[in-house]
Specification:
mainly alpha
Length: about 90
């Protein structure tokens, strides 16, 4: 999320929590894990198409802005309170 908030295009591996934050080819690029050839191709794609990289970066920034750390903190606090009270 922090990288997306910078407005830079993001490339991540498919699977896991990070991949769930990226909409492939809309807010970033996803590549298979342990595939350096695919990673290099994704990097090259963005280097060769700076306008597309900028579009991905801006879409990622807008999308990441929906994550509000204060909401997450409040949800965690409610969970801790519930667990602590034995409910």
């Amino acid at each position: 999320i922090e990288a997306m908030l910078t407005g830079r295009p993001v490339i991540a591996t498919q699977g896991g929590a990070i991949a769930s934050l990226i909409d492939h080819e809309r807010t970033g690029l996803l590549v298979p894990p342990a595939d350096p050839t695919a990673l290099a191709a994704a990097i090259r794609r963005l280097v060769d198409a700076p306008a597309y990289a900028a579009i991905l970066g801006e879409a990622g920034r807008i999308d990441a802005a929906r994550f509000d750390i204060s909401e997450t903190r409040q949800a965690l606090q409610r969970l801790f309170d519930m667990v602590g009270s034995g409910r």
